[in-house]
């Protein structure tokens, strides 16, 4: 596994004019790999805003081509590191700082059957959505040690289809690993829905 980062060239509007929705970022991520032999492996990614800069963060099984990864990025800003070596240090009981962008949704029953998905739009239910999924994913969180730092909607456009708004809630805080194997799976495979479109990437920092 690899973790990569590139600074988005936000001050070059001519260069980034296509980045108007999540689908465009998805295409950028997919095209950052030279040869997938016709089989696309899952890539987790998200956009982070740090001070006045914007970064694309990505976790992938294959190593991306840094030149392709800089298509919409600042020249020379793309970096890739070995992720397996990092997550191999994670053990049960360890505390970690984390950041996670989620697509908080619920299934609504129609005629007694599972129907369409509806977004959680209140802070209360977005936090409950997250807390209800912690232990099953190999970690625990004290409610007083997690915050929703960003909420809203992102535009998702697909070719030949009408653009839709997708609910977004970004969590930051401190977690404790309770099942290291399940937790490592989440780091590699993602959390929740819409993983191909900038949601579900959980990143951690050792305290």
Shape: globular
Unreliable parts: none
Largest sheet: 5 strands, antiparallel
Determine the oligomeric state from the structure.
Answer: single chain
Number of helices: 6
The helical percent reads 10-25%
Q: Structural class of the secondary elements?
A: alpha+beta
Residue-averaged pLDDT, rounded?
A: 93
Provide the gyration radius in Å. 17 Å
Query: What are the secondary-structure elements, in order, as H or E?
Result: EHHEEHEHEEEHEEEHE
Q: What does it look like?
A:
With 207 residues, the protein is α+β, with helices and mostly antiparallel strands. The protein contains 6 helices and 11 strands. Strands 5, 8, 9, 10 and 11 form a 5-stranded antiparallel sheet that branches. It is globular. The two termini are 22 Å apart. 26% of the residues are buried.
Topology, element by element:
Elements: E1 2-7, H1 13-16, H2 22-30, E2 43-50, E3 53-60, H3 66-69, E4 79-82, H4 84-87, E5 95-102, E6 105-110, E7 113-119, H5 123-131, E8 139-140, E9 146-156, E10 164-177, H6 180-189, E11 202-206
Antiparallel strand pairs: 1-3, 1-4, 2-3, 5-10, 5-11, 6-7, 8-10, 9-10
